[in-house]
Amino acid sequence: MKRFDKLVFLDFETTQAPEGLRAVEVALVLVERGEVTRKESWLFNSGVRIDDASMGVHGITNQDVAKEKSFAQRWPEMKPILSQAIVIAHNASFDASVLHAELKRNGLMPPPMEWWCTWKLSKEIYKGLFASYSLDYLRYELNLKGSVSHRAADDAAVLHQLFESLLIDADRKSLGTRAQFTRIGRVQGEKVWPYPQDQQASLFG
After folding, report:
1. Which residues in the chain come in under a pLDDT of 70?
2. What is the pTM of this model?
3. Are 135 and 159 in contact (CB under 8 A)?
4. Which among 53, 47, 54, 45 has a CA at the least distance from the CA of 24?
5. How far apart are CA 176 and CA 167, in angstroms?
6. What's the angle, vertex CA 68, arms to CA 67 and CA 72, rounded to 5?
7. 76-104 pLDDT tens trace
8. What does each C-alpha distance from 77 to 80, 81, 205 come to in angstroms?
9. In the chain, is it the N or the C terminus that has fewer CB atoms within a 10 Å radius of its CB?
10. Are strands 7-17 and 85-89 parallel, antiparallel or unpaired?
11. 102 phi/psi in degrees, rounded to 5
């Protein structure tokens, strides 16, 4: 498959809040024409206390974020990375909904972008091969480097490797075209992204 112009591998870590999930960390791995050109991770001070259950998953404490910027303050740094990108996450509906909620809460609009899901791609390309399609299980079964720590930077790095494996194995199974990847892996819908359906469908032709 021809290399993509711009991919961004994204992972959010969150906390529960009365109004829903709030982002406390994000990692972005920017890949342009097959080369990693930028890696970023930021903690956010969401203005709410990180609940104990969430803290038990990712280990991010209230002290860790106390002096960090808010999501809205970081958005000017995030937006150009995401602009005109295919944004890839594992269970992308979750990460897209977190970003959607943070943007809506702060009165911000996203740049043109598209969401693909490696969980959906893995379920199709590795159909019937694995007992689970979680990121950590796939990392182990596919011998990917690194660990899934439920910290954003680690998970985004493993996610990038998983996508590369999916590209290779899709070619072997004659699923390795842009149209097929789009059909299998793309995430759409008003619940995950604030574009009207007709505009969303035309972002990348």
Report:
1. 1-2, 190-205
2. 0.91
3. yes
4. 45
5. 6
6. 135
7. 999 999 999 999 999 999 999 999 999 99
8. 7, 7, 26
9. C
10. parallel
11. -65, -40
